[in-house]
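Practice problem: predict the structure.
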Amino acid sequence: MKITNVQCFPLKIKPKEIYLGGQADDDQDDYYYRPEYRCVYSRKMETCLVKISCDNGQVGWGEALAPVVPQVVAEIITHLFVPLLIGQNPFNSQVLNARMYDSMRDRGHTAGYHLDALAAVDIALWDLKGRILDLPVYQLLGGNFRDDIPCYVSGLPRPTLEARCELAREWQGKGFNAVKLALGYGVSEDLANVHAIRDILGPDAQIFLDAHWNYSLSEAAELAAGLQQAKVRFLEAPLLPEDVAGHAVLRQKTAVAIALGETERSRYQFRPFIEQQAVDILQPDVGRTGITELMHIASLAETWNLKVAPHLSVGLGPCIAASIHVAAALPNFFMLEFQPPVFEVANSLLRSPLVCEQGRYRLPVNAGLGIEIDEQCVLEHIWSDA
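Answer:
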């Protein structure tokens, strides 16, 4: 049994609404900077899908979380990974992962696009192995601790506090009683948002806050004190992602759980946060870690009695499905992220939709990731520099 072909599909999809709010406009450049987050964002939904074919006719699909310039991931896979993969047994995935990781290790590429590309290949190999064995991925991971996956609505992407409150109440009416606010606009404004949402949703709702690493240690400590009064379940990314020591100090100052990890791609990057007791809830993203590495990270977290809440932002079908399978298989799972606008786009590329209702993802039961990619639809959105 051998891998015979690897294809990459860098995609740019125009959504109804820009991620985190705003209207899509073809007259503007794809990329823009959000000063409040100090990050580049795209006005389109961008990703890179990977299709790996085997000589028995089976295929597996993977995806890298590639919200900007997904063609970079495609180039890495095509030029660096394909020579390592062709002719290999897909069940040698651990060996193949090590070879892909090692291929640029001495050049310092142990994060970023290189590992995003590795993650896409890893997910595709798990999908392929599942399809060959006619088993869902969660069974290959050792079984499912849960039959469906609890989730929280992420972002509430509306321009005003009143509109965010209205949207939160709408989702609560649909059975989603957990929300995360994407803020980081200042301690006073963030606390005003949180307390308003708490008043609207009531005492039993779960509320989380993503601060997008916008605060100093003293500001984050002040914010956390107010969040504790509002019974916020976790504070995500309060400080710069490189500041391990600062997170450790902050964790000692507050009873609010500290969550982080969307910027980290390996157990090596998570290890200092864990060992220095700088985090309560780890948030690896399967589109940046792959399934194999996410399971390693979760096992490491489990030895310190820490929870894992996989990050899930603009990843589409394979990313979402892989996240659901991993979430089912984790003994120390906390909760999974749910991005409604992204979910709609993701399902537009699938022959049968993934399901998330009443605050829970439905666990796919078919072989592999349990999804069927509509390849013709994928080809309609493929990126080209022509």
